[in-house]
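@channel sequence for tomorrow's demo:
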Amino acid sequence: MINFIHRNMALVLAPVMTVLAIAFYNLLSLLVRHHHNILHGLHHVIGAVVLCIVFYGIIRYMQSLPEDDS
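structure tokens (generated this afternoon):
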């Protein structure tokens, strides 16, 4: 069970980190008040997909590192 959780942690953490990054970006956008058109929303979607892929890759890389059994 622990190995299953460890192997699939990236599938959980990548979307969670993506949602947090998007929420932070949206908060900043609301402060600046500059998301008025649909194209800007499209940029959000593309950014979310890219962030999810990047976070997934980082987490999978971290999981592939050898564990320190000190």
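heads up for whoever presents: Residues 18 and 48 are 6 Å apart (CA to CA).
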